[in-house]
Amino acid sequence: MRTKLLAGLVLAALLIAGCSGDGDGGSDGRITLRFQSLAWQEESVEVNKELVKEWNATHPDVKVEYVQGSWDSVHDQLLTSFEGGEAPDIIHDASDDLADFAYGGYLADLTDLLPQRLKSDIPQHSWDTATFGDGVYGVPFLQEPRVIIANAKWLKEAGVRIPTPEQPWSWPEFRKVTEQLSGDGKYGVAWPLKEPVSATLNLSLSAGGQLFHRGADGKVTIRFEPGDQVVPRTIHDQANTDRSASPTTLGSGGSDTLPGFFGGRYAMVPLGFSYRQQIVQQAPKGFDWQVLPAPAGTDGLTQGVSPQTLSIAEDSPHQREAAQFIDFLLRPENMVRLALGDWMLPTGTEALKDPALHTAENDWATGTALAGQLRPAPAQSVRGYPEWKDKVATPAFQEYYSGAIGLDELRERLEDDGNLVLARYQR
Asked: What is the pLDDT of residues 247-295, one digit of tens each?
């Protein structure tokens, strides 16, 4: 009797365990997906949570749990979660952070998981930002050009030509304009270059800069050629020769320059397009500002971007369901909502047609006009880029912009020290 009783208890326990589903499901067998979002602005967080709620209301068998992440720590946090087997199913990140995760086998290849609707809606040059080797490891969905936020009254009173996406400034013209706007303790431009690498490299595409060159063997080498030098030389000369760029903001973040901009100390500040939200919220009443395109070079207004992406963890047991949620999240109407919440541009061609993104209010139309010029950031698929950026490029550019080193030493450090770093990742 005792043996039969124990056998019955074991069988009952097994049946209960079987009914409870796996570790990602509840007692009713419902699948639960964890979606880690890096949305941080109030509007953006609200939109993301609304969309999760809408999904859950219409998909009773697949529940999505919203998890709040942070841009400040996402790389290290994800690496720890991957290695510990605790990664979220759906991962919000940026495309320039994906290479090592993709090559390391932490992210699922989305090639066969995504519907054709989504594949065809997003242009190939955007997909290229999340393509590593033969696989696609993220869905690029939000992007922003780097633009110039200008004191409209100041520029008008100075009588300078106002650039448009159709007739932008050249880099030499931009330098002359900032010199014309400077004097009496005021500066034509404030470059916030606490993180100088991505801004420099992405804007350098307009002048034909590439910096990273991949050979036939697939290995990448760094060459700091004339096209790569146009933007850094312009910034250096503005700060050290013309005195038209504020030297104190070179080590600042974008938000740090806004008080001086509002106070009339700087005529212009190059910033990401999404900074318009902070300007709307913080600008003094009556402050007249406008968005201008970044200067053009031999390749026109082309500039690099690292779009925000949605990926799926390779260890997720519910990759198909995760892909279905991503498809829902990035329907054209939902992509527009996400873009408006983050004050950025959607990558989807259908979403970009939405009238809300073509209005003169807050210069949405100026930014949208630049969408077709956005290309993958130069370092997009380079393994070892984070280490090269932190240990080599950031201190080298900072010293060059401050006048501590010259162009030749900058080139030597970027190439010699940089190629030593990249070589460790390409053996």
From this structure: 999 999 999 999 999 999 999 999 999 999 999 999 999 999 999 999 9
User: Which of helix, strand or coil describes residue 85?
Assistant: coil
Q: Please tell me the predicted confidence (pLDDT) of residue 382.
A: 86
Structure tokens at 406: 């010259």
For residue 241, give both structure tokens: 């020769």
Q: Where are the beta strands (DSSP E) in 17-105?
A: 31-37, 62-68, 90-94
104-125 pLDDT, tens digit per residue, is: 999 999 999 999 999 999 999 9
Minimal CA–CA distance to 231: which of 292, 302, 160? Answer: 302
Question: Secondary structure of the chain: what % helix, strand, coil (to 5)?
Answer: 50, 20, 35
DSSP 8-state symbol, 417: I
pTM for this prediction: 0.88
Q: How far is CA 277 from the centre of its chain?
A: 17
In angstroms, rounded to a whole number, what is the distance separating the alpha carbons of residues 202 and 379? 9
Query: 70: which residues sit within 8 A by CB, 6+ positions away?
Result: 38, 40, 77
- What the block records as the tokens of 343 is 């004050």
pLDDT band with cut points at 50, 70 and 90 for residue 341 = very high
Using the Cα atoms of residue 394, residue 176, residue 302 and residue 410 in order, give the sign of their dihedral. Answer: negative
CA 159 vs CA 21, 180, 302, 359: distances in Å: 70, 10, 27, 26
Strands of 181-312, DSSP E: 187-189, 212-214, 220-222, 266-272, 289-293, 303-305, 308-312
Spatial separation of the C-alpha atoms in residues 26 and 403, rounded to whole Å: 60
- What's the distance, CA 130 to chain centroid? 12
The upper half-sphere exposure of residue 45, i.e. CA atoms within 13 Å in the direction of its Cβ, equals 8
